[in-house]
Amino acid sequence: MMLPLYRTATTLLAPAISYYLKRRMARGKEDPARFNERQGMTKQPRPEGSLVWMHGASVGESLSMLPLIESLLKQRPEFHVLVTTGTLTSARLMAERLPEGAIHQYVPVDRIPYVRRFLDHWKPDLALWFESEFWPNLICETSSRHIPLILINGRISPDSFAGWQKAKGMIASLLGRFAVCFGQSEEDRERLEALGAPKTACIGNLKFAAAPLPADSEELLRLEQAMTGRPRWVAASTHDGEEALIGETHRMAAKSHADLLTLLAPRHPERGDAIAALLRGQGLEVAQRSKDEPLTAKTDIYLTDTMGEMGLWFTLCPIVFMGKSLTHRGGQNPLEPAKLGCAILHGPGMENFSYIAGRLAEAKGSQTVETPAALAETLKQLIAEPETAEQMALAAQKVADAEAGVLERLFENLDPFFKEIER
After folding, report:
1. Same domain, 125 and 233
2. Residues 392 and 414 in one domain
């Protein structure tokens, strides 16, 4: 009952949806130059031959796609890949990281006319959806055209599972349109099955297959020279509200380590100016990377408000705090710093990465901190005892390397679908 109501509502509420999208554009949350893609239109032609469509919500999902995209295009160079995401940051990242043979488009807003326009143009032969974004119209219209749908790295958090329990008919109808749902953990697989997925499997978490984040070698050398002799750490992928706490943490830790350097990499770099003003209001010396402000001996906070450089910060800093975990819930991917040999700290809110966070904690590659004061104390301890930080980093790296075969297992499971669409 709820699915037909949803499909009807997205038709009847077309003016409200258009108004909402215009508001998003006014707030800088949509790309004016490519807004037509959100309405299912594009200037890019569909390439000839087999087209595999991969969809994920944002940066994390798109990063998970990259190893599969690269492997697919290497093994089947005649194929083409269409990647859709919904955020500005993911679009910028894909512009930098997608290999030849792959195209990025913004996912159409989930209105039936937009979705049909998108599918009419691209005519994908196979649809691979990543993690947990279930757009009903997009799923239904894709399925109605007999395009096979497969869920990759499916994730159902405890909160999402509880929420879908109130709409079991709707989620069962949506999951029933997938040929197979691969859960990123056995717990996710069980939840997908309980919600009505007819065929489920768990072959591992594809996030483990991601290559270490890249770092520009010349810039790495320049910054290492600028930071030489200073203890340093990075607060990565922070969200609104956490930056003020990172400023407090720096001030507390700097009482024991006067030359401490804190790198702060916000999840949304466009917030850089506001963050810089906030930290300067706390009396801290801030150098803002997006404005080419120099990093000096007096710099307290190096605000790295740029895109595509997280590998640089993880390579430079032996200790990493993962954001969206202290004042927010969900967390960010701790495997990225683990692959680059970092000791990992995070707050209690790691629900979106509970399996990975649990593995890291069990191996003693990470620690949970509940407050800025606890973060400062742990940071001071790890700076004073570098051997402890190194042991944590080695343990984290071992966890990150533990499921290296997941990509091969996934490809083996997908190969029959690829053979089916070969032209």
Report:
1. no
2. no
Same domain, 112 and 256: no
Residue 328 has a pLDDT of 81
Closest by CA to 344, choosing from 265, 236, 215, is 236
pTM value?
A: 0.83
Q: Residue 177 contacts by C-beta under 8 Å, 6 or more apart in sequence?
A: 139, 140, 142, 143, 149
Same domain, 285 and 228: yes
84 forms bridges with which residues in the sheet? 55, 105
Positive or negative, the CA dihedral 103, 104, 108, 114 is negative
Give the CA dihedral 416, 206, 78, 82, nearest 10 degrees. 110
Please tell me the predicted confidence (pLDDT) of residue 188. 95
Q: Which residues of the chain have pLDDT under 70?
A: 1, 423
Q: Which residue has the tokens 């917030």?
A: 271
Among residues 115, 52, 111, 56, which one has the least CA distance to residue 87? 56
What are the structure tokens assigned to 278, written together?
């906030």
CB atoms within 10 A of CB 87: 19
Q: Judge if 164 and 297 occupy the same domain.
A: no
> 266: part of which helix (H) or strand (E)?
strand 261-266
Look up the CATH number of the domain holding residue 50.
Answer: 3.40.50.11720
| Domain co-membership, 263 together with 358 | yes
Domain annotation covers residue 11: no
Domain span at residue 105 reads 26-208+404-421
Asked whether residue 393 is assigned to any structural domain, the reply reads yes
CB atoms near residue 282 (< 10 Å): 16
Instruction: Report the C-alpha gap between 6 and 22 in whole angstroms.
Output: 22
Q: Which residues belong to the active site? A: 61
- Asked if 205 and 152 count as a contact pair (C-beta separation under 8 A), the reply is no
CA dihedral (177, 182, 187, 193) positive or negative: positive
Task: Specify the number of domains making up the chain.
Answer: 2
What pLDDT is recorded for position 211?
86
> Is residue 13 domain-resident?
no
- pLDDT for res 423: 67
Angle between helices 168-175 and 158-165 (to 10 degrees): 110
**pLDDT single digits (tens) 310-349:** 999 999 999 999 999 998 889 999 999 999 999 999 999 9
